[in-house]
Amino acid sequence: MSSDHRFEEPLERLRARIDGLRESPGSPARDKAIRKISDRLVKLSGEIYANLTPWQKTLVARHPARPFTLDYVRVLLRDFVELRGDRAFADDPAIVAGFGVLGGRTVAVVGHQKGRDTKEKVRRNFGMPRPEGYRKALRVMKLAEKFHRPVLTFIDTPGAYPGVESEERGVSEAIAVNLLEMARLKVPLVATVTGEGGSGGALGIGVTDTILMLEHSVYSVISPEGCAPIREAVERGAFVIVTDHHLPPEELPTGAVLLNPRLPGCSYPFKELAGAGIAWKLSEALLTADGARVGLDGKAVRSWMASLAKVAALSTVADMVPLTGENRILVSWGLAGLAEPRSAGLTALLSRSSVRAGKSPSVHDVAFRIAPRLNASGRIDHAFRALELLTTSDAGRAERLADEIEAANTERRRMQERVVAAALERLEKTFDPVRDALVVEAGTPEEGWHRGVLGIAASKVAQTVFRPVLLLSREDGRVGGSGRTWGRTPLHERIAPVARRHEAEFGGHHAAIGLSVAASAFADFRGDAQAAFAESRDEEEWSVVLEADAPLRASEVTTELVEGLGRLEPHGMGNPRPLFLLRSLSWNGRGRPVGDQGLRIVLEDEGVRLDAVGWTLGRIPATGRAGRWDVLANVAHDAFLGRPALTVLDAVPAEAA
Asked: What Cα–Cα distance (Å) separates residue 409 from each residue in 225, 257, 282, 365, 450?
């Protein structure tokens, strides 16, 4: 027995005595002794487990002899069929998911699964799921929704796996998507915490209508080990403030000041602040209350808060919280301030992110340029490099740090771009849009075709050729990689029969797959796959559906409209940019090329001329451009032109609409 479980030693001694008696010859005296010791065992068990310390309760929740999900499945269900794989990357044995029959009714079951022996513990990753585990869980829940089946979840995990590869594949996003999608499910959901429910790793399958907890189980936003430093600091006399924006655990740390708008009884009206937003609010309170004591007047306090808002804005966008309420205000203020950053680190970072000096970055700039650079340091090397960049006052040091972060962030992007370029160069010679309904290309690691970038590269190629794409790498006798669909083509469904015929390893969903086939079978697989897609060719699947928020006349595209729309910014999660439908605009067919496939054009209606840019308008044949068009577009101030303009997302001839 582990030394941590010494409180159970009296029970183990009694069990050992019972086992010894049972091995002796049967007699009335033996049976009487077994009954007496058994009664003592029951009584002592009640006394011990009724008086557990919080730490002992945690140990019982983690007890190696506790039943796991598959144990409950064997006892409660019949005809259980386990489903594996997330249809995008791989299977995750840390989560078990499938369907079975409970009391005559088919139900979906999703649960964490730990291991009994060392080998199984490693295979199950000690019950700590990776992103593919949560995506597998959601896949099963979606199937349950489709076929109107209840969902049962069994929670028993110390938390989601925090490894680098897990973070790189988006474990935080996978959990966030599960939270959102589970909240939308209409079928009944019942969750049971059977052991330990740790942090987001538990919440990823724990958003339910009813939640049950077995005796001596725990459910917390952070593990007890995570709270231990807080307890030690408090015991040593330190004043500790803990800020958090997650749902709080039932048992909260004692002795520390807790700052979280989601705490029970907290009347603060806005609950969606990001972690940085709460830290900003704490700073505001401290500076307002005690700024004068350290020589800061009201003006200086406001200056400090404006400076801190810049970093809080970056974090709020990167954290993908809704850009509504206070988040919208904080991001708007912070991004405006970044037009003139005083921090040497921010100045260097914005420069590397292609944000012009004197210009405020947009939410798009933050999400796709700035935040990835800050994150790259922690994912590839260490987050301290990004922290030092944001805090250094040495301009030279800031430049060096920004260069290091840029190098870390761009390495995989370079790999991706090399693959895309190589694939498109081949396709220039071989691709036939009339013949080809599927693109399949393969390279070698020596040529730069590393499997880690093939998924994103396939997506880029698909956006160019408007077809589903498989990009694969030849390595160790196998040809494997990733595929991405285009439009609504069900990639997994269509490739599955071909993959099975050629004994390929594959998984994924309608939009993305991972696949590996023996090198000796690749040529036949490729031919069969392309033939299967050609046979099922449906060009309607390749169309993209956009929906307008409101109709708009050309005469209504004014500076006043742009100023009014500006009040809706910043746009992002929870607050998308409005999309307008403008009908029957005249285009003379002329345009100036911008980017790879874009055009700057002038549209006209009833004497009103509208400047417009469309990043895909160049795809329209030159001979078919002149005429009247219905367009879907955003309206904004064009900094290049200095006046309102349209950004065209789609255009169709007016007579065909």
From this structure: 33, 37, 32, 15, 16
Residue 577 contacts residue 592 (beta carbons within 8 Å) = no
pLDDT digits (tens, 9 = 90+) for 172-209: 888 888 888 888 888 999 999 999 887 788 989 998 88
Distance between CA atoms of residues 403 and 409, nearest Å: 10
For tokens 């220039």, what's the residue?
A: 428
Other CB atoms within 10 Å distance of the CB of residue 289 = 10
Between strands 210-213 and 218-220, the pairing is unpaired
176/2: higher pLDDT: 176
The tokens of 108 are what? 């979906």
d(CA 611, CA 604): 9
Find where tokens 């054009």 sit.
Answer: 601
What is the rounded distance in angstroms from the CA atom of residue 260 to the CA atom of residue 245? 6
Least confident of 4-13, 137-146, 523-532: 4-13
Is 69-220 a domain of CATH 3.20.20.70? no
Alpha-carbon distance of 93 to 89, in angstroms, equals 13
How many percent of the chain have pLDDT more than 70? 94
> pTM (2 decimals)?
0.47
Structure tokens at 594: 């911008």
Q: CA of 113: how far to CAs of 90, 127, 327, 627, in Å?
A: 17, 5, 38, 62
The residue with greater pLDDT, 609 or 200, is 609
What is the Cα–Cα distance from 510 to 489, expressed in whole angstroms?
A: 7
Q: Which CATH superfamily is domain 550-656 in?
A: Nucleic acid-binding proteins (2.40.50.140)
Tokens of 418: 């090399």
Alpha helices in 338-481 (DSSP H): 344-352, 363-365, 371-380, 384-391, 395-430, 451-465
Q: Is the pLDDT at 278 greater than 70, yes or no?
A: yes
Whole-number Å distance between alpha carbons of 404 and 397? 11
Report the amino acid identity of residue 70: L
- DSSP assignment of 367-378, as one string? IIIIHHHHHHHH
CB 132 within 8 A of CB 169: yes
DSSP for residue 360: P
Cα(273)–Cα(262) distance, integer angstroms: 10
Q: Which residue has the higher pLDDT, 503 or 152?
A: 152
Residue 131: exposed, middle, or buried by beta-carbon count in 10 A (0-12, 13-18, 19+)?
buried
Assigned token pair, 657: 């609409």
User: Do residues 277 and 316 lie in contact, with contact meaning Cβ atoms separated by under 8 Å?
Assistant: yes
Cβ contact 363:331 at 8 Å: yes
Enumerate the β-bridge partners of residue 587.
603, 627
**Domain 431-542 falls in which CATH fold?**
Diaminopimelate Epimerase; Chain A, domain 1 (3.10.310)
Domain ranges of the chain: 3-51, 69-220, 226-259, 272-337, 339-414, 431-542, 550-656
pLDDT tens digits, 362-396: 888 888 788 878 876 654 456 667 888 888 888 99
Strands 95-102 and 78-82 come out as: antiparallel
